[in-house]
Amino acid sequence: MATAKDADRVRPALTLSKEELEVEVPEPRLNWMNQWREWGVRVKPGKKGLTLGSLNVGLYGEIPMNWPDRSRNPRGAIGVTGTPPVAIQIKDKVDLWAPCAADLYEEAIQRRWAPATDVDWTAIHPLPDDVERAICQVCTEICQYAIIDVELITSWQHQMAYGYHEVKQFLATTSLDATRRHEAFRKRALVNGGGLGYEGPCQVSRLLLESRGGWTETVTGLTLVRGLFTQVMIRYLTRFAYNGVERKIYECVTQDLARLLTYGIEHIKYALAHAPDKQGSVITTLAIGFRMFNRDLRDPVLREALAIIFGGGIAGARSEGMHVFYEMLDEYVEELLGACQYLRLPVAMEQLPTVFQKDKRQLPGE
Amino acid sequence: MDQQLQNGSEFELDLGWMEKQGEWGTHAEPSKNGLTLADIQVGSYGDAPVESRNLSGRPRGAISRPGSMPIGNYTVRTKSEIWLENASFLYEEALQRQWSSATDIPWDTIEPLPDDIEQAQCQMATFLTEVEFVAGDVPSRWVSQMSPDFYEARNVLMAQVMDEARHMDVFRKRALANGGGLMRATGATSGFVGGIDLARDFTEMSSRLHLSGEGAVLTIFRMGELMAYNDAEKAIYRLCAQDEARHVAFGVMHMRYMAANAPERREEIESYLDEAESGMLTDAANPAGQLNQTSESLSIMLGGGGKYFDEGFRKLVSIRKRQLQEYQKRVTSAGFGDRFKNGRSRLGQMLENVAN
Ligand SMILES: [Fe+2]
Ligand SMILES: [Fe+2]
Q1: Which of B20, B159, B190 shows the shortest C-beta gap to A198?
Q2: Burial of A335 by CB count in 10 Å (0-12 exposed, 13-18 middle, 19+ buried)?
Q3: I need a labelling partner for A2 at 20 to 30 A (CA). Which of A245, A288, A326, B317 fits?
Q4: pTM (predicted TM-score)
Q5: Range of the domain at B204
């Protein structure tokens, strides 16, 4: 093998035929040589290897507020002009950026997992019928959330300008995360004598898929409504896990979702800092989101299934299980309001539908 | 259950949903590779419909809710449009073989290279970064329009989107790791008619992307040893080739399924192949094609420097031949081998002109 020093002399062999050896070689034009915007870059690997973020040096680290170029010119290269444009809609940094995207991208790769082999599928045993049915129902709904997440993120990724490749790269990890989430919960539903259940109500999903106008608004619904709720729900499912299979899935999915939430919240923060007029549409999206979520919550299925899991069966669901469900909802609201405070969004408990308000909610026996 | 319903309690439960469940009593068993997608194709859960009526994004096999709104934007709803027989395998393999461009490439083995070779590497890396963008974004857009009833195929494409993100970044990393930088973009993937972006049909897109486009790139990555000057570059090409082989396999297997299950579309597919072939050597998206920016940088890399350009160019010609031969094998394996015998394909003629 050639080393750098003798590179110009020794090359690995490729046996050429007589004909190939006689090929007439055209005079090279070499008109592409010595053409760059910045040369002499030597990024060295650090503690975490050679990371995407570490490439942002000199001109390559200049990430402008607007990227009008609708071609696939890599940031920092000499661009081509005069080619038909690619269908890119998001061309402003404020509409997609989060400073942490490059790091989250590398973290996603480091923390990759495979449901087939990282979960010990033998660490499961038959459960009482009501509990198995409840778990399978929750799996079904989480699968559906994940399917919608995939469709949602993939419908946006290609519309984003290439100058902001860090975000596009990160989104590729999140849609694979969601793919794996669907896979893992489907596998859980089919492994222990159960099956899939009844499909979930669709209002929040509708909000997500129909918010086609702005990625920031989509991210608001995806992270603060759907994502954060799913995260809190999985935290509670972890507390009430029935076996090692579930615990492992919840643990891995929690990590995946944490990255999505971090990106989402940091993107909203960035957007609001650089375009304060976005605050109105973010708040409106949230208000619509809660209304949609409220409609979904009127449906008893997810609530009852979770209560059965938390209460250890139907009997326990009626008392303890349901109380845990509402405790979980309160925890979600608390974290949501915390996130709003962090984002300086004037959202208060009183503005939420009553089901989210601990004091106003009517529970039996209270 | 009824008895339990009658027990007095604080909360009233409906529990009607407990009767609305998909096939029950499923015991998927892990196999030697863990619990794979193939292992959960149990009972009705293994049946992908010929036509999908799922418009609300429910997982296949779940019971549909009559009041659900058709929120899914699925233009791909026919099995033959998307299906392939080994999707489960390709997806599981993709998850097992994910790698990190940050930590799985021995970046510290890169040492300064002669200027012409570094420039050639950086030009090629610039080009590859650019084409990896299209290979990720286009499948991603298609996934958003595919019924989840065909989730196995969707999953393989999602893994591809992830692979391409990594390819894009590994070549950017290479360009910025050794005293060089990015050079001039080529515009190879712009919105030209017949390009990967613009296909209005999934199989048409797949024939351009998976079969001819990525097929050509796969041949080059497989020859990576010939263009690598250190272990880092060798690892880059080897790992990318592994990923590309799956992407190409998707295209071949999908076309095979299509040929067998939608014979009425054969002629249409032949015309995609006509178009793909006509562009194989002229298309700027083939790094070994006729665009001088890429073919010259490859020749310098293959030859071992500008001084040995002739030797490098002859190797390039040999690689072009291999690209065409491998393409022929893939198309034959997809069930369209007749075109090479009945005079429809121009491949024979192209093999004679590879040196142009
Ligand atoms: Fe690739
Ligand atoms: Fe690829």
Answers
A1: B20
A2: middle
A3: B317
A4: 0.95
A5: 107-283+321-351
